[in-house]
Amino acid sequence: MRPVSIIGVGMIPFGKYPEKDTADLAWPAIKQAMEDAGTDRDDIGIAYCGSVYGGMMIGQRTLTRLGMTGKPIINVENACSSSSSAFHQAHMAVASGAYDVALVFGVDKLSQFGGGTIPLVDEDWEISQGMLMPALYAMRACRYMHETGLTTEQLAGVSVKARAMGAHNPDAQFQKEISLEEVMNARPIADPFTLLHCCPTGDGAAAAVICAGDVAHKFEAAPIKILASDLCTGTYLTGYRDMTVPEITVRGASEAYEEAGVGPEDIDVAEIHDAFTIAELLYYEAFGFCGRGEAIRLLEDGVTSIGGAKPVNPSGGLLSKGHPVGATGIAQITEITRQLRGSCGARQVEGARTGLAHATGGGAMGMDHGACSIHILQR
């Protein structure tokens, strides 16, 4: 397997675009990534699209807009890990030597559903009993609070941090800071969550161009090395599940660290899957950034804020940047790439050399999560 680098990234501002169809959300992000990479249509050997609700052949429908037909186009659905799973597939295609250059993009348009929780599959027996995403994460939060003494005010602080970071991200769905009181007094969703504990639904797209490390110099780009690309599936259990330990992420983190030859102490910046406030705290522990029950200390001591020792979600995360599910994985990779290049302006993590992007997908079916993809990048 040969080394692979990211040579171009792009994304559109996340938000709500009721006047646009899904394909028309995606192609501007692709064009931006290809311009960033210095590639043209003929350079791309294969393309992968990650989407959950884009419909049949969304990759082909999108690339037709750019005249990029006739080459292999593969569509990937893996819940919220769709585009990061597509990135994993593209990485393997290039690393194996099958292709020199690959395009990966993710897109989804959740505004088509008119609000509410994202549609899930009723034939899943847990979902049919009411285990929607807010309910699942609320149960995790209640159990963690019971075991560690975490307070509702401390939990709300995760959202305050996210909005403070998102205020400096022109691609974020929410670009306004909020107070602890605003989070606490927002509309109740699922105890202990209010609306501002939950990531918003919306529309968005992001894209990346990757290539073999030995040909990266041919393009006008600043290559970012892909040290690890890990994808794993949750373990199905019929009995007790510890809802405070995200097993799939703990396992995936171990695999990714081993592949990359680094440890948690080497990660300078991370984008992790904070679909709800409790998730960020659980993932601090899952990635080994702190010990059991110590996550709130990292948050309150500013360790995970800009200027701290290990900034997490400088983009604003899903809580502020938004979560158009199929686009999220590549959007995280885009943010880490830009951080390692030093091009993030007011939210820049100074001196960042090694970064991590993490997206989970699905959350029921007798599993902690259905999928988890973790990528470790380095300049």
Mean pLDDT: 94
Radius of gyration: 19 Å
Strand order of the largest sheet: 3-2-4-7-1-8-11-10-9
Number of helices: 12
CATH level 3 topology of the largest domain: Peroxisomal Thiolase, Chain A, domain 1
Structure description:
- The chain has 379 residues and is of the alpha/beta class.
- The protein has two domains: 132 residues, Thiolase/Chalcone synthase (Peroxisomal Thiolase, Chain A, domain 1, 3-Layer(aba) Sandwich); 224 residues, Thiolase/Chalcone synthase (Peroxisomal Thiolase, Chain A, domain 1), CATH 3.40.47.10.
- 34% of the residues lie in helices and 18% in strands.
- The strands form two sheets. A nine-stranded mixed β-sheet has the order 3-2-4-7-1-8-11-10-9, sandwiched between helices.
- The chain is globular, with a radius of gyration of 19 Å.
